[in-house]
Design a protein that fits this description.
By secondary structure, the chain is mainly beta. The protein has six domains: 94 residues, Cadherins (Immunoglobulin-like, Sandwich); 97 residues, Immunoglobulin-like; 98 residues, Cadherins (Immunoglobulin-like, Sandwich), CATH 2.60.40.60; 97 residues, Immunoglobulin-like (Sandwich), CATH 2.60.40.60; 103 residues, Cadherins (Immunoglobulin-like, Sandwich); 98 residues, Sandwich (Immunoglobulin-like), CATH 2.60.40. It has nine helices and 48 strands. The chain is elongated, with a radius of gyration of 59 Å.
Length: 729
């Protein structure tokens, strides 16, 4: 029982101790006390007395259990509990502790155990001028072509000084000479870079080599300095400088990478050939740490790991690499190496609320609520949450790593009805780990689109004399909505022309938009008409649109030609007089006719159907002109006489009659018997044909006697060439 009770007390004691530790931390001063000491101060040297800063008396230190604690295993300070004095426990080397970092600060805490209380403090280590500038290469070789023009600048290796501030490297000097002077340039990180500037053109034949002494001086008191030999070899012409593919290479390498791992590979190109185009790689202005950590292949440009990396000591390296060709020209690039901390836990996402169906046209609507977490610490435990950029949603951070997913702009179902959203949670560790959570949001329809016709106007062609209920065409409208919101009903709208009997002309199928002619159309009565149709959806409220329909009636050849001249009244025959001296081609008369149709159906052509003497007259096909084909002979008088006799006979079926006046003709008419009058009459019949190619004709039908064979042969032989210029039946 006692052992069991003892085990129960241990957790309770730990809880009490943790409570007091947290209470002491809460009471710790937020502003640390600052103390300073010069580096290389002897061990045991007095630093400061803490009684006043702690606000305690001498006797209280031992009672309250005061002691000094700091990060790490090494104790750089010792504390006298009796007097409150703080002493150095060892010599402090600022360069070893902080390197180039300035100010160099060592944080420590003063712990009072009874009651528990913390005091934050910092010890600043002041730099002294205990290091001279050092050239890592005692001899600096420059190969300079003789063709280089004066004013050209050459970068040379700088010196390294571990001190900081005014004790660091401050100036360079060069030995007097005729060809070069020294130019100092400040880099972005405050480092002074020496540059040689060519004053006078080089002549390899006059002086193939130049030796100069470069001196580096710091700003300490007294100043420290060191020298290096700059040996310049004058080369023959080489006019292309090596150029790196990139001026900045950025690489990341895990801190647990093994020795020999390839960190990066740099590549430079030189357009020259031969030795002037051969490139070698080397470190440029590299610190001792970089030379210890990395190894560079002079031929391949591979940057390899020489020793293990430690992220907690150095997080980044900036490596300057110089590419030099065989002619001495060089170019530089920078390799920025980032040491990556280990990260072995991916983030986690917990969904609290999810709405996966949203009506369109809503804005600022909540879609989801979720939280993210990562069991790692530091950057490896910090997370970033994102979604795709091309979505109408945005993430809104909330408290305690909670996020809300909200609609940023109104959704349009007709544009996109479904969204696949990928929530990506990435930690800030190296390498970065991430998880992706996919959600699908469906957009429900709202009746916000009216039906749209495929055309703003439709033109339909219907041939006249159509059968009733003929399908003459269709209109079509679509609605971008869905469901009942997209169901379209068609209707005829009241015509703008109140005299148009639209209801008796056409009808429309309400479901599919088919248009039908309700009766037979007559082109001669109605050539065209137009009306408007409407399309209405079944949404709430209903939306509608309209389109114009224009119906053009096409002509059919349903009207025969009508003869206007000569008049055909069925009783009075037509009479035409021909002068006796009429030449071939003389205009006898002109038949005038019209057709009620249009277009080609109204085009008329004329032809001579029958004549008492076929060779005597001809009719022009396009204008109906009847002309003589040759000179009149005796045969014409004979035929004219016969025609007069026959013309007196009546025929009920005749459409028109032709007659010749009785009695003597005027003297100017043809007289083939020598009496200066026509001894016979001549008659002809003209056929009218429509232009549509039908077999409908309109005839002038006089009485036609029989021909005398011998007379007919003479007529045909009289003027065959002129007869060919007319149409004959």
């Amino acid at each position: 029982m006692e052992a069991g009770e003892g085990k129960e007390r241990v957790p309770k004691q730990r809880q009490v101790l943790i409570f007091f530790v947290l209470l002491g931390i809460a009471q710790a001063s937020s502003q640390p006390r600052h103390y300073s000491v010069a580096e290389e101060t002897e061990s045991g040297s007095f630093v400061a007395n803490l009684l006043k800063d702690l606000g305690l008396e001498i006797g209280e230190l031992a009672v309250r259990g005061a002691r000094v604690v700091s990060k790490g295993k090494k104790m750089h300070l010792q504390f006298d509990k009796q007097t409150g004095d703080l002493f150095l426990n060892e010599k402090l080397d600022r360069e070893e502790l902080c390197g180039p970092t300035e100010p160099c600060v060592l944080p420590f805490q003063v712990l009072l155990e009874n009651p528990l209380q913390f005091f934050q403090a910092e010890l600043r280590i002041r730099d002294i001028n205990d290091h001279s500038p050092v050239f890592l290469d005692k001899e600096i070789l420059l190969k300079i072509p003789e063709s280089i023009t004066p004013g050209t600048t050459f970068l040379i290796e700088r010196a390294q000084d571990l001190d900081v501030g005014t004790n660091s490297l401050q100036n360079y000097t060069i030995s007097p000479n005729f060809h070069f002077h020294l130019n100092l340039q400040d880099s972005l990180d405050g480092i002074i870079l020496p540059q040689l500037v060519l004053n006078r053109a080089l002549d390899r034949e006059e002086q193939p080599e130049i030796r100069l002494t470069l001196t580096a001086v710091d700003g300490g008191t007294p100043p420290r300095s060191s020298t290096a030999l700059v040996r310049i070899e004058v080369m023959d012409i080489n006019d292309n400088v090596p150029e790196f593919a990139k001026l900045l290479y950025e690489v990341q390498i895990p801190e647990d990478s093994p020795i020999g791992s390839q960190v990066a590979i740099v590549s430079a190109r030189d357009l020259d050939i031969g030795t002037n185009g051969e490139i070698s790689y080397a470190f440029f202005q590299a610190s001792e740490d970089i030379r210890k950590t990395f190894r560079l292949s002079a031929k391949s440009g591979k940057l390899l790991l020489r020793q293990t990396l430690d992220f907690e000591s150095i997080q980044t390296y900036t490596v300057n690499i110089q590419a030099t060709d065989g002619g001495g020209l060089s170019g530089t690039c920078v390799v920025f190496v980032q040491v990556m901390d280990l990260n072995d836990n991916p983030p986690e996402l917990t969904m609290s609320t999810l709405i996966n169906q949203i009506p369109e046209n809503l804005q600022d609507t909540l879609i989801a609520v979720f939280s993210v977490s990562d069991p790692d610490s530091g950057d490896n435990g910090r997370t970033v949450c994102s979604i795709q950029d091309d979505l109408p949603f945005f993430l809104k951070p909330s408290v305690e790593n909670f996020y809300t997913l909200v609609i940023s702009t109104a959704l349009d179902r007709e544009t996109r009805s479904e969204y696949n959203i990928t929530i990506t949670v990435t930690d800030l560790g190296t390498p970065r780990l991430k998880i992706q959570h996919n959600i699908t949001v469906l957009v429900s329809d709202v009746n916000d689109n009216a039906p749209a016709f495929t055309q703003t106007s439709y033109t339909l062609f219907v041939r006249e004399n159509n059968s009733p209920a003929l399908h003459i065409g269709s209109v079509s409208a679509t609605d971008r909505d869905s469901g009942t919101n997209a169901q379209v009903t068609y209707s005829l709208l009241p015509p703008q022309d109140p005299h148009l009997p639209l209801a008796s002309l056409v009808s429309i199928n309400a479901d599919n938009g088919h248009l039908f002619a309700l009766r037979s159309l007559d082109y001669e009565a109605l050539q065209a008409f137009e009306f408007r149709v409407g399309a209405t959806d079944r949404g709430s409220p209903e939306l509608s649109s309209e389109a114009l329909v224009r119906v053009l009636v096409l002509d059919a050849n349903d009207n025969s030609p009508f003869v206007l001249y000569p008049l055909q009244n069925g009783s009075a025959p037509c009479t035409e007089l021909v002068p006796r001296a009429a030449e071939p081609g003389y205009l006898v008369t002109k038949v005038v006719a019209v057709d009620g149709d249009s277009g080609q159906n109204a085009w008329l052509s004329y032809q001579l159907l029958k004549a008492t003497e076929p060779g005597l007259f001809g009719v022009w096909a396009h204008n109906g002109e009847v002309r003589t084909a040759r000179l009149l002979l005796f045969l014409l008088s004979v035929l004219l006489f016969v025609a007069v006799r026959l013309c007196r006979r009546s025929r009920a079926a005749s459409v028109g009659r032709c007659s010749v006046p009785e009695g003597p003709f005027p003297g100017h008419l043809v007289d083939v018997s020598g009496t200066e009058t026509l001894s016979q009459s001549y008659q002809y019949e003209v056929c009218l044909t429509g232009g549509s190619g039908t077999n409908e004709f309109k005839f002038l039908k006089p009485i036609i006697p029989n021909f005398v064979a011998q007379g007919a042969e003479r007529v045909n032989e009289a003027n065959p060439s002129f007869r060919k210029s007319f149409e004959f039946s």
